[in-house]
Amino acid sequence: MSHVAAQAVTNSQTPEKRERRRQVSDQTIVRLFIMPTLILLIVINIFPLFYSLYLSFTDYSVIANKPPEWVGLENYQKILTKELPRYWHNFVVTGSYALLSVGLQVVIGFSLAMLLREKFKGSGFVTTLILIPMMLSPVVVGLFWKLIFDPSKGIFNYFLYPGNPSAGPEWLANPQLALWAIVIVDVWMWSPFVMLLCLSGLSAIPDYLYEAAAIDRASSWFQFRRITLPQVAPLLLIAVLFRTIEAFKAFDLVMGLTGGTPGDATETVAVRIYREAFLGKFNTGESSALAYIVLVIIIAVSNLYIRALNRMRED
Amino acid sequence: MATIELIQVEKKFGDFDAVEPMDLTIHDGEFVVLLGPSGCGKTTTLRMVSGLEAVTGGQIMLNNRDVTWAHPSERDIAFVFQFFALYPHMTSRQNIAFPLQAQGESKATVQMRVAEVSSLLQIENVLDQRPGSLSGGDQQRVALARALVRRPAAFMMDEPLGALDAEFRERMRAEIKRLHIDQHATTVYVTHDQIEAMAMGDRIVVMSAAVVQQVGTPAQVYHDPANLFVARFIGSPGMNLLSCRYTDRHIHLAHGGSYPVPADYVRALDKALHGTDEVILGFRPEAVTVNGEGELSATVYAADLHGGYTMLHLDLGADQIVHARAGRELNYPISTVVRFSLNPTMVRFFHPRTEAAIIREVRQ
């Protein structure tokens, strides 16, 4: 479009001027504008992606003053055999975290969407309020939920055990509860996202379908099951896809709240990679290999979702 | 099987009167057409009967049961929507089965009834397709099947042919009519197409500006319109309407020329007009006979060949054009003067202020 517009302008000018203008063509300008983004993308995204793939086949450590040495599949072998029990724990933590938090987000987000579906006075304001957690930085959220969960002065136990807050559990220090604490925060933060997608899905369902269903003598439950749910399903699945990918990469919230403690009770795969790659260990090669295993898992899971989504959209 | 009775039913949207209080009784097995221009309240009336719209006054009786405040699902009335309102994520089969499944019918019953109704409407070949891939006609057949399958007490149809191509429309019109004859179910049908209304209705309810103008058989609304609106709205072209003067048992046309008032009307006109002499004369194009001995004359303004007949536009002077139906075999050159007569049993009179028809009084 810009091409046509520029052409129209140059045509109206004198021939010499047109000649000079032509030295910088639209195509060149387009390339110049794209260049900075492209360079940034290559330097901080694409290069590390391939470099870490290379590093995952080496014994490299960033603090060892030694060039990377090719070890083939040794890192992968180590992770998947000798070290597997320890890594398996990280995957179990991540998996349960993803299952719990995405599951709860879907239930809560969808319920909120159903409630906010009917417009009432101030519903726009309420929607905005609900969306606020989503807009906050995860590190900030981690820090202030740490205060909220604090057993002696936190407000969480204060509400849970009115009168005697100190009888409440130490959410972040209890190995049984710490993961749940992170799940609660993640659900608090990201249910609005699921709600937002569901809300747009719900508002796209035409009223006449419900009129037809009322005429067809369908109960509210039957309408919900046979009309609302299938109509929202594609968007709901997108929400689940996004949240699952995010949950598998859970890092910032965990670091802000527990840092993987107590012990390794909340050590997700991403936290483990970080610990392996930096905290005192600096096993760059091994952690790169682990990161690639996670990548493959995420791609596989996403593919399952996308396939389900496509099947749903076939009609 | 159902008798539907509307008693002073009205609908207001805020200050706007969508339907002014109306009374209507729809008999068991009757096919009633609500006819009127868009925005006249006909669809709102239909939606009130089916329960999709709450009344703001009056009562709705279904088989002598007060259903004014009953939910649509408690009325046992099926509704066919103008834009089909099929469930887009279900196949035709699932769409048709929906009302049965909603009632918790057994699998075998559902299967049997769906097969039954789809063979009736000849849609077996599209049962496994989704609405999105069907033609308009097939979509409407599926919608009809969904309405039929539960064997409701009555059918409401909201311009069911409005979204179809002209080609399909005529065929579906015949199909719906056949369906009604076979099933003999009480049907209320909304349309703005007067030809459709004339062709399908046992009775027609003509509505305009939220008010019922006339309720009658197609012949009644065509030949004896209750007022000027109905006279103009029914028929294509509508009734010829001429402002005239009435004196000495004669009608005097604006441009000159007079016509003796049929005996039946003399007393009625005297009474209705009491003193004033203005009256509106109305007659259908087929009331005109063009012949050499006619008592009125006009210039041929235009002649439309319709194949079976010729529609003449006759200029009476003073900006008055009347439509006349004439034989196809005759040739009427433009600007020639023709004489014509009016069939005295087919002329009607309207009051110029109230616009109501002046009804003839047959003398004993």
Per-chain topology:
The complex is a heterodimer of chains A (315) and B (364).
Chain A: H1 2-11, H2 15-21, H3 26-55, H4 74-80, H5 84-117, H6 123-135, H7 138-149, H8 155-160, H9 178-203, H10 207-215, H11 220-248, H12 252-257, H13 269-277, H14 284-313
Helix pairs in contact in A: 4-14, 5-9, 5-11, 6-9, 9-11, 11-14, 13-14
Chain B: E1 4-13, E2 16-26, E3 31-35, H1 42-50, E4 57-62, E5 65-66, E6 77-80, H2 92-102, H3 107-120, H4 136-148, E7 154-158, H5 166-183, E8 186-191, H6 194-200, E9 203-208, E10 211-216, H7 218-223, H8 228-233, E11 240-247, E12 250-253, E13 258-260, H9 263-273, E14 278-283, E15 288-290, E16 296-305, E17 309-315, E18 321-327, E19 337-342, E20 347-350, E21 357-358
Parallel strand pairs in B: 3-8, 3-9, 6-7, 7-8
Antiparallel strand pairs in B: 1-2, 1-4, 4-5, 9-10, 11-12, 11-14, 12-13, 14-20, 15-19, 16-17, 16-19, 17-18, 20-21
Helix pairs in contact in B: 2-3, 2-4
Structure, described:
The complex is a heterodimer of chains A (315) and B (364). In chain A, helix 11 (220-248) runs antiparallel to helix 14. Chain A folds into 2 domains: 2-55, no CATH class; 74-313, MetI-like (MetI-like fold, Orthogonal Bundle), CATH 1.10.3720. Chain A contains 14 helices and no strands. Chain A has 315 residues and is mainly alpha-helical. With 364 residues, chain B is an alpha+beta fold. Chain B has 2 domains: 4-227, P-loop containing nucleotide triphosphate hydrolases (Rossmann fold, 3-Layer(aba) Sandwich); 237-358, Nucleic acid-binding proteins (OB fold (Dihydrolipoamide Acetyltransferase, E2P)), CATH 2.40.50. Chain B is built from 9 helices and 21 strands. Chain B has helices spanning 42-50, 92-102, 107-120, 136-148, 166-183, 194-200, 218-223, 228-233, 263-273, and strands at residues 4-13, 16-26, 31-35, 57-62, 65-66, 77-80, 154-158, 186-191, 203-208, 211-216, 240-247, 250-253, 258-260, 278-283, 288-290, 296-305, 309-315, 321-327, 337-342, 347-350, 357-358. In chain B, strands 6-7-8-3-9-10 form a 6-stranded mixed sheet, sandwiched between helices. In chain B, a hairpin with a 2-residue loop joins strand 11 (240-247) and strand 12. In chain B, helix 2 (92-102) packs across helix 3. Classes of the chains: A mainly alpha (315), B alpha+beta (364).
